[in-house]
Design brief:
Helix content is 9%, strand content 19%. The protein is built from five helices and nine strands; from the N terminus they run βααααββββββαββ. The longest helix is centred in the first third of the chain and has 9 residues.
Length: 361
């Protein structure tokens, strides 16, 4: 099946860009990586110099200097919204002429993964939210060469924190109190008025909840789908330059987690009538959003109707805090007009020989 590729809609003349804070790793041909590092990645020794142009994708052009929260003319001119040819030109003009990327951090798969069965670019379906174009490039982190024909999954919650396939178990919040919570000022029926049993635990926390949480659990522990919905989920195959592009919406948030998008990269498989089969998963990660963008999005409907307490990027227990290497997206949008659309991009450096399915983290 020919991968779907398109330039897709994006904001014209972006005025604001949030760059991930970790710069690409520069390697020299005269300084090969230590033996221990080569053994750790279980990859063949290769020279990175000849692959410099192929290495620079939409994720991080070497000419950019802006970090999260900064505005820079040079950053806008050589950003993730640049074309592959523009990014290549930026690499060619870099002082070293050699660019490579660290392995992108592995993270937990989370409880709401559904095996790839929707091969498509536009995963929005009928979900409301800020339009978002997500552009990813997948490269071999050691050779810096693009990985063609890799299957890239993404999945995330909607603007109010709901995951398709798990609508009854993923919480979110949209201004309506969860079922089972009585209106303010009316005591619940059946409230005990007597003395607790003498054998009750003495170390139980006061006011501890007794029901199931309304939000998604922050870590792993796969759950089986509860419904047939599949919005905000999809798979694309990388082109010969390693690129995929998705049309989606800016994710919302739910209890205990910052705003994020899940992703997996599969290699060695093939497309069948039943979907993508075979091969192995070489990367399981999450893509993260700078606080400035999330705060701006939170002022736009329907995000501004959410009653769920938000976890910040710094408070999140899964984001590794290491910028682009940890999945922090480069974001481009018009300042003060984020509701018109966002472009998010990143280069994923993976080890195609490794297996990382994210279920053991």
């Amino acid at each position: 099946m020919t991968p779907q590729q398109s330039n897709g809609p994006e904001p014209s003349q972006p005025e604001f860009q949030l760059q991930s804070q970790v710069q690409p790793q520069v390697q020299s041909q005269s300084q090969p990586r230590p033996q221990a590092q080569r053994d750790m990645t279980r990859r063949r020794a290769v020279m990175a110099g000849g692959a410099a142009v192929a290495a620079v994708g939409l994720g991080a052009a070497v000419a950019t200097t802006a970090s999260a929260g900064e505005t820079s003319a040079s950053a806008v001119s050589a950003t993730s919204s640049a074309t592959p040819s523009a990014a290549a030109s930026a690499a060619a003009s870099s002082p070293s002429g050699e660019v490579c990327y660290r392995l992108t951090s592995e993270t937990t798969e989370g409880p709401y993964y559904i095996d790839a069965d929707k091969i498509r670019k536009d995963i929005t379906e009928d979900r409301e939210g800020i339009p978002m174009t997500l552009r990813l490039k997948v490269i071999d982190s050691e050779s810096c060469k693009p990985l063609a024909k890799a299957a890239v999954d993404i999945w995330h919650c909607d603007a109010l924190g709901i995951y398709s396939g798990y609508e009854s178990s993923s919480g979110g919040g949209g201004g309506i109190p969860p079922t089972g919570i009585p209106p303010t000022g009316i005591p619940p029926t059946g409230t005990p008025t007597g003395t607790p049993p003498t054998d009750a635990p003495t170390d139980a926390p006061t006011g501890a909840p007794t029901g199931a949480p309304t939000g998604a659990p922050p870590g792993g522990g796969h759950q089986e789908p509860t419904d047939d919905e599949r919005y905000l989920r999809g798979t694309q195959f990388t082109d010969r330059h390693g690129f995929v592009e998705f049309t989606t919406v800016f994710p919302g948030w739910y209890r205990g987690r910052c705003v994020h998008i899940h992703t997996k990269v599969h290699v060695g498989g093939k497309l069948t009538d039943a979907g993508y089969e075979g091969g192995h998963t070489c990367h399981t990660g999450q893509l993260f959003f700078a606080e400035e963008a999330v705060l701006a999005a939170a002022e736009v409907a329907p995000y501004n109707t959410s009653t769920t307490e938000r976890t910040t990027l710094d408070e999140d227990g899964i984001y590794p805090g290491n910028g682009a290497q940890g999945g922090l997206l480069n974001l481009t949008y018009r300042k003060g007009r984020i509701g018109k659309g966002v472009v998010g991009s990143l280069t994923l450096g993976v080890d195609p020989d490794a297996t990382h399915d994210g279920t053991d983290l």
